[in-house]
Fold:
Amino acid sequence: RVCFCFGCLIVEGVDMLQLDRLRYQQDRFSLTADFQIAAGDRVAVIGPSGGGKSTLLNGIAGFLAPKQGQVLWNETPMPHHPGERPLSILFQDHNLFPHLTVLDNVAIGLRPDMRLSAHQKAQAISALDQVGLGDKAMAYPRDLSGGQQGRAGLARALLRQRPILLLDEPFAALGPALKDEMLELTREIVHQAGITALMVTHDPQDALNFAQYAILVVDGQAQAPAPIGPLFDQPPPALQAYLGRRAP
Ligand code: ADP
Ligand code: MG
Structure:
């Protein structure tokens, strides 16, 4: 809904993730962010190594307290505790517990004590089906390939049904074919569920394949998301410097 009052063309009532005048500090490194992302958008987070991409995601996740500003979801400041925030996180190592079955590793996303109701168990199995791991429920992480471990991590994130998904180079350790497959699966599932996704990647082609928008993180500043096609077609100097000859 758009507010038609004169002077303010503010979009009202639309769900969004708002990074409101944020500043995070890691020792002498400082990162600022001040923009918003509409619910359901898929956003790539790109920029040079050490530029602050992980810092941005850790801040949104609540692992890092801001020195200034706040993170809001639908105009409500997010709770301080990461576990209470409306989001799930997928890291490269998938955080699978070796002593738990695949099913329990996924179910733990729903209930840390894994005391599932019959309905919740069915949901966990359904999430495994969704990522093509339906037949691996009783296997252990050591029995899974890297790609299958990635799928299990994704199933856990999905089962939590949080509206925001943060991905920090989740599939960087996979070979190209498997990485593309995981990326497409993730994009499809995120799209179907209407999840707002921020994905850090150092691969411009991955960014183009996955996202509609890109945030450039450089020189201690996370820039507002820009439509990704035009951004790569006519990169501003900072992006040009980062892309070098790797422009897709
Ligand atoms: P990126 O993910 O873009 O490679 P990071 O967000 O990991 O960058 O790091 C940004 C900057 O913050 C770097 O200069 C890094 O050295 C610094 N930094 C990251 N984590 C910590 C930490 N735990 N303590 C101190 N400095 C950190
Ligand atoms: Mg990083």
Q: What stands out?
A: The radius of gyration is 19 Å. DSSP finds eight helices and eleven strands in the chain.
